[in-house]
Amino acid sequence: MALQYIFELLGTYFFAISGALALENKEQDMFGAAFMGFITAIGGGSLRDILLGSYPLVWIGDINFFYAILAGILTSFVAWNFVRKLKRTFLLFDTVGIGFFTILGVEKALRMGVRPEIAAIMGMFTAVMGGVIRDTLSNEVPVLFRKEIYATACLSGAIVYLLLYYFGLEREWNLLISSSVIITIRLLAVRYKLSLPTLR
Amino acid sequence: MALQYIFELLGTYFFAISGALALENKEQDMFGAAFMGFITAIGGGSLRDILLGSYPLVWIGDINFFYAILAGILTSFVAWNFVRKLKRTFLLFDTVGIGFFTILGVEKALRMGVRPEIAAIMGMFTAVMGGVIRDTLSNEVPVLFRKEIYATACLSGAIVYLLLYYFGLEREWNLLISSSVIITIRLLAVRYKLSLPTLR
Amino acid sequence: MALQYIFELLGTYFFAISGALALENKEQDMFGAAFMGFITAIGGGSLRDILLGSYPLVWIGDINFFYAILAGILTSFVAWNFVRKLKRTFLLFDTVGIGFFTILGVEKALRMGVRPEIAAIMGMFTAVMGGVIRDTLSNEVPVLFRKEIYATACLSGAIVYLLLYYFGLEREWNLLISSSVIITIRLLAVRYKLSLPTLR
């Protein structure tokens, strides 16, 4: 569990960086960047907890998340040019992040006693809604509606987790396998520019 | 009450279809359409319940709403071209939907013990906020700010319901009459292109 | 406390006016303007209360806030041209409003038992999030990401309040001083067109 906690803080840290860098092509000041970093990092988990009625929200109950976010924002300020060049590294971290947060979101929803169908939605929301809020505030159509397979990967991994969960697989193995499903789908989609069909 | 429940599920089903079709002029994949359908269907009721602190949210507590949404999304996938041609039928269903959901929202708010002024707002939010969230995520100014009388019809019907409620009218009759007020105002507004004056 | 209550209602009144005037350059009808006024006035406080799990929300528990909002909307309808010419007066009211609401938000968060870092964020959210929601719904990049120091002023005042609070300063003095910090920073920023550096 100590390892999981460190991963959660790290994931939060990377989400904050991705949010702080989001406005790069728009007029913005440093505060705007920090604000975006903050919203992106707390958005998905907060929405999940509010929908489930689970209080206190994670980042309000445990101040370490606040400092992980602050560290992410400072990193993006100090290493702005450096971080932006690391697009590939960044993609990797983001992908590991959504893989991990999806499954944690599913587990939290199950602990709150909801049905598995709802838990799958909550897992996906946890991973992607911070980015949706970030994009909406930046006045963009959220990437999740127009890019390579992203939220679909999260939803697939959530469903895999739930199947293995009901087959009785041990939690640690399940976390590992279903996160890997998300990460693999996402990286393949980026590598081969896969996307879902449109409706026309 | 059985009839009311069927109507609620049907309304949710139609909201999901209207959301899934919302992005038609934008780049999007099937997942984006499904995501929009989901958000549109749960948006208004979820916002009402979160503002009132009423847990669990309807679609989390009762899995049938989840399947009604799923059915709506699948309908829009399978019958995409067909559904889009039925603009008139669709308008009718949407209008019946907002008429019905407005009054259910008012009733739920009253049961939670809020004042009638607040209940009227909650009724309107229930009917229109799913669409507002849908439009905001699609990067459009919400239709409700620029189109024919829509939310105004909901608010008017909510006020009629509350007046008749305090006059002691039986619930079934009241539901019927005040929903009809909403539906009539809305259809007349569309038919005769009525809109409220602007501020200039 | 009676004086504070009057200020809260007045602040809500001015927020409603600022929201109702927000769409001035867009197509809109009177209802759209009223809706925006309402959302702007309740947005920041509602988000704070929902994040903290503090129910009932202020405007739901106390109907006077509803009527303060209604009065603000009616004022913007009746005195539309007049109010728009008073840009300077308006700036002053808005600035006093954010100064005051920030500190009230900090105090409420502290009473809910959260850490001071979180309370500072909550104070800022209370003051600025109504405007962020207003701008997002109007399909604009929120002013707070592109204009003179605004949210930064709120955050600074919140931090001053918390420092003086832990030094043991009496509450009335603290409220006065830290609100003044916000108001002063904001007015200086507007007067001398100060802004924070961008990241490039």
Protein model, in words:
The structure is a homotrimer of 200-residue chains. Chain A is 76% helix and 0% strand. The first copy, chain A, is mainly alpha-helical and 200 residues long. In chain A, helix 2 packs antiparallel against helix 4 (63-78) and helix 7 (116-137) packs antiparallel against helix 8 (151-166). The longest helix of chain A has 25 residues, at 87-111. The first copy, chain A, is globular and about 50 Å long. The mean pLDDT of chain A is 87. Chains in contact: A-B, A-C, B-C. At the A-B interface, helix 2, helix 7 and helix 8 of A face helix 2 and helix 4 of B.
In brief:
3 copies of one chain form a homotrimer. By secondary structure, chain A is mainly α.
Quote the distance from N terminus to C terminus of chain A: 46 Å
Given as residue ranges, the uncertain stretches of chain A (5+ residues, pLDDT < 50) are none
Helical stretch tally of chain A: 9
Biggest contact? A-B, 28 and 29 residues
The total tally of domains of chain A equals 1
Rg of chain A computed from alpha carbons, rounded to a whole number of angstroms: 16 Å
Shape label of chain A: globular
Structural class of chain A: mainly alpha
